[in-house]
Structures are given as C-alpha cells and as structure tokens.
Amino acid sequence: MHVDFVFNGQAFTATLVDSPSARDLVAMLPLNLVIDDYSTNEKITYLPRKLTEAGSGSFADEAPGDLAYYAPWGNLVFYYASYRYSPGLIRLGRLEGGVTPLLTRGRFPLSATARR
Fold first, then answer.
1. Are 51 and 22 contacting, i.e. CB atoms less than 8 angstroms apart?
2. Would 107 disulfide with which of 1, 16, 36, 103, CB 3.0-4.6 Å?
3. How far, rounded to the nearest angstrom, does the alpha carbon of residue 12 sit from its chain's CA centroid?
C-alpha cells in the first residue's frame, strides 16, 4: 500500500507496512489535513479520528523518513531527522525518495490519497 502526500507544491509517497493501523489509515483516505512543524525533527498532522492500535508494539531501527502514528495525540508523524522510539508510537511506513519535501518549514494544507 502507498499513500501520496502533497503540500506546498511538494509531493512525496510513503510505502506502508502491512499492519492494522496502516490499513485503518488507508480506509480514511482521501483526506485534506494541515501539516505543521513540531520540534526539530518532524512534521505532524492530526487525523479526523484515532487509528486502531491493534498489533502495535515497540520497534527499533528508527530513521529519518519514517512515517508513524502517535496514538496518545492521534496524529501522523513524518520524521525528517533522527528520533527515538517512545511508547505510543506506531510505525506506519517509510517515505520513498528521501525527506527533502519535509524540510520546508511552516504550516500548509496537506492532501493524502491512497495508491495500491
């Protein structure tokens, strides 16, 4: 499963893992959201509802380009720099082609559509 994202003229694709949370995200699409900077290593966007946490658990090999869901807040997290796993974080997939689009600072409309 793939999700295409577009904001501020920047387009990028995420390849999703096969998990209940990732399938739940795809079932919501298409979506029009808002993406914004958070901290010094990520952008976030809030979903209209929380995703299922079924089958989630800790993971390793955190890396820039990860797409995750932070269950306590109900938001997607796009990592463009190093980070560490924290409880409540669910990896959904990885960005294809690098993190360059995420380096654009600011708050923008974000569209998300499924591509199978």
1. no
2. 36
3. 11
For the segment 41-57, the average pLDDT, to the nearest whole number, is 95
Q: Is the dihedral of CA 87, 93, 97, 100 positive or negative?
A: negative
**Quick one: CA torsion of 41, 79, 99, 7, rounded to 10 degrees?**
-100
pLDDT band for position 86 (50/70/90)? very high
CA–CA gap between residue 12 and residue 14 (Å, rounded): 7
DSSP classification of residue 87:
T
Measured between its terminal Cα atoms, the distance across the chain in Å is: 5
Hey, what domains does the chain have and what are their CATH numbers?
Answer: 2-115 (2.40.100.20)
DSSP state of 88: T
Residue 71 dihedral angles phi and psi, to the nearest 5°:
-60, -40
pLDDT at 95: 97
